[in-house]
Specification:
It contains nine helices and 18 strands. Strands 1-2-5-6-13-12 form a six-stranded antiparallel beta sheet. α4 crosses α5 and α4 packs across α8. The N terminus is likely disordered.
């Protein structure tokens, strides 16, 4: 049983990589597939879908069909604004509009109409559990969003901006990032150190935080953000592993998606992060949140 679950997870990860990085390639998968009433093979995936640091919490299943991620149409559009929907039972189609743009999706077809212009979809639109589903890729394309699958964090990212931190970092960037990593995660694993580094980098890219590594580390908006800054341990020399973790994070290695917060629940005196943010995962002694 465990072997089957591991195999299924591996296959799912490979499929989603193909979904978002190679949109012209499809894969036939028979293992563990369910069959819809329309005769379409699918299976459910739990990979998070995240837009600019916010988790899109789908209430209904996310599916893999023909090697592509398929999601409920109305839930996808609801996340991005105030849309109205009109269902045509004769054509089995939904019309989505925000007053400026109109999108039409027909069950049993492989396209989306954006203001009458056809955008080819990589997989079939179809009805599942009373909901019309379409590929995440075609709807993201219609809204002008970029897509990326992060294999390490097993999440699908959406944005209108850039996914990548500038790898041409300065000496000062590495100097301070390696020190906060060492101060916060000296006794954590390499993965735990990389995770802390990425929280800092995610804040640099976020509009609510300073736009430099130094600025994020020493940010005092709402109080000191990192305990080692108040304790003075941020000035200690970093270990070789902390330096390597900081370098790898600066070069694009990310194992916590777009998390902005972390804390050690066994040592924390305040739990406002857990009370107000979305939990992502635990690595070592730290819990990470969006």
């Amino acid at each position: 049983m465990m072997k089957d679950l591991r195999l299924r997870r591996i296959i799912t990860s490979i499929l989603i990589i193909m979904i978002l990085l190679s949109p012209l390639i499809t894969i036939n998968v028979d293992a563990s597939a369910e069959i819809s009433p329309q005769g379409i093979k699918y299976w459910v995936t739990n990979s998070p879908v995240i837009y600019d640091y916010k988790n899109i919490a789908f209430k209904n299943d996310k599916l893999i069909v023909d090697g592509y991620l398929i999601v409920p149409v109305t839930e996808f559009f609801d996340f991005f604004g105030r849309y109205e929907y009109e269902w045509d039972n004769d054509t089995k189609s939904v019309t989505v509009t925000d007053g400026n743009n109109t999108y039409q999706i027909y069950s049993g077809t492989r396209y989306l109409l954006e203001n009458g212009h056809k955008i080819q979809a990589p997989a079939m639109n179809f009805i599942y559990n009373g909901k019309i589903y379409a590929s995440l890729k075609v709807m993201a394309d219609a809204l002008g969003l970029k897509t990326l699958y992060e294999e390490v964090s097993d999440s699908i990212l959406l944005t209108k901006h850039s996914f990548y931190f500038n790898a041409y970092y300065t000496y000062e960037d590495l100097y301070w990032l390696s020190r906060i990593v060492h101060a916060e995660a000296a006794h954590e694993s390499y993965e735990g150190k990389v995770a802390v580094a990425n929280v800092v980098l995610n804040r640099v890219r976020h509009d609510s935080f300073p736009d430099t590594i130094y600025g994020v580390i020493f940010d005092k908006a709402g109080g000191v953000q990192f305990t080692p800054v108040a304790a003075g341990t941020v000035y200690n020399d970093p270990s070789e592993e902390a330096i390597r973790a900081a370098k790898d994070a600066l070069n694009g290695y990310n194992n916590v998606s777009w998390c902005l917060f972390f804390f050690n629940p066994r040592l924390a005196k305040s739990f406002w992060i857990a009370d107000t943010c979305d939990f992502y995962k635990s690595i070592g002694n730290h819990d990470f949140y969006f």
